[in-house]
Structures are given as structure tokens and as C-alpha cells.
Amino acid sequence: ISFNAIDSALSSLKNCQSYINSGMDVATQVALDLVQSLNDEEDVNNMEKVMLEYATMDRELNNYIKALEETINQVKREKPENLPDLEKLVQEQFLEMESKNSDSDFQMNEKYMYFKDQLKEMKKQCSLFCDHDNETIEQIDEDIAVTRSQMNFICPITQMTMKRPVRNKVCGHSYEEDAILEMIQNQKQKKKKVRCPKMGCSHVDVKGSDLVPDEALKRVIDSQNKQ
């Protein structure tokens, strides 16, 4: 097996990763659709099973890619006179990595954790704003609805209804994407940290890497704007 052939195989494997990522994105959107339309909980649980299958495939693929890269780098460093059985070496390395797997590995899969996080947020938002048991938002106490709407929908920076909310994974608060990124950039130029602009929050180091799209909140805001 030539190293060029291996590089080509690695490229193909990494393309497979992009397909898995796309599948996880679609599964997340479908699960949010199911929660928002108040489908049976079993349907939502089935989507979580799909996500776990994707996460398992992603872990196996990552391990195989890592095993392949480490084996090739080792062979290149050692430069043996006779090229060893690379396929066997990679398989041995892969199986060793797989033997160390545990369920906690999924806590490291960002897309699976994002799925869990957004599902939780969607359920929380829908308990307030989605139709439930044939009741509409108009049948909920109006003062409570308006108060919760203001709390959930208004950006603490712009004081306007958010259009592209992002949520801070550290403290759980949401902001308008452009507004918080501009704040981070401005403070970065001054070599200062950004305190969470949500009143009462003690988090004092908001980072761009901690922000994720708050798809659940955006869906509810969009839904309310249409009413």
C-alpha cells in the first residue's frame, strides 16, 4: 500500500465525517420540529436514538482515523527496511482505542450535546409558548405571557427582540449574535474580558467559542412574530 493511497483513504474518511455531521444537524432540526408541533414523546426519543447512532459512528470513525494517522506517522519515523502489514497495525491500534470507549464519550460529542441542550430548551419554551392540550397562547394569563416573552425574547444588549439568538454555554443566557460578538471584539481590542450583559449574571468572561445558535429560542420567537 502506497502512502499516497493512504492519504487518499484518509481524505475519504474525513468526507464521511462531514456526512455524519450533516445527518446530526438534520436529526436535531427534526427533533425540534417534533417538540414544537407537540408530537408524541416516543417520536422525540426515537430521534435521540438516531443521534446516539450518529455519535457512535462519529466516535468509531474518529478512532479509526486517529489509529491510521498514528500508525503511518510511526512507520514514517522508524523507516523500516520492510514495510509492515499496515492494515493489521491500524486494526490493532483501532481495537485498542475502541476498548477504552465508554458512554461518557458522548459528553464530548459537541453535536450530540447541542442536540440535548436544544431539545431541553425547546421543551422549556414550548411549555410557555407553544399550543398545548388544545390551549393557545391567548388562553394563558396575558401578563405572565408578556413578562416571560420579554425575559426570553429581548436581547440584554440591544433591548430589542432577538432575530439571531445565540446562547452562552457557560451561564445559559442568550443574546443577539451580532451584538454580543461586537461587544467581545471591542473589549478584546482593549484587552478586557466581557461580563455577561444579563442583569444579575456573575459570569465575567464571555467568549465567542462559548456561544452556540439558540435554535429553540429562535423558533419560538419566529412563531410568536407570526401570530
TrEMBL record:
Gene Ontology terms describing biological process: double-strand break repair via homologous recombination; protein sumoylation; protein ubiquitination
Domain of life: Eukaryota
SMART domains the record matches: Ubox
Molecular function as annotated in GO: ligase activity; SUMO ligase activity; ubiquitin-protein transferase activity; zinc ion binding
One family name in Pfam for this protein: zf-Nse
Location of this chain's protein in the cell: Nucleus
Residue span, SP-RING-type domain: 140-226
This protein's record includes keyword DNA-binding: no
Keyword line: Ligase, Metal-binding, Nucleus, Transferase, Ubl conjugation pathway, Zinc, Zinc-finger
Gene3D superfamilies in alphabetical order: Zinc/RING finger domain, C3HC4 (zinc finger)
InterPro entries: Nse2(Mms21), Ubox_domain, Znf_MIZ, Znf_RING/FYVE/PHD
UniProt key word Ribonucleoprotein: no
PROSITE patterns attached to this UniProt entry: ZF_SP_RING
Family named by the database record: Belongs to the NSE2 family.
Protein name stated in the entry: E3 SUMO-protein ligase NSE2
Organism this protein belongs to: Helopsaltes ochotensis
Gene giving rise to this polypeptide: Nsmce2
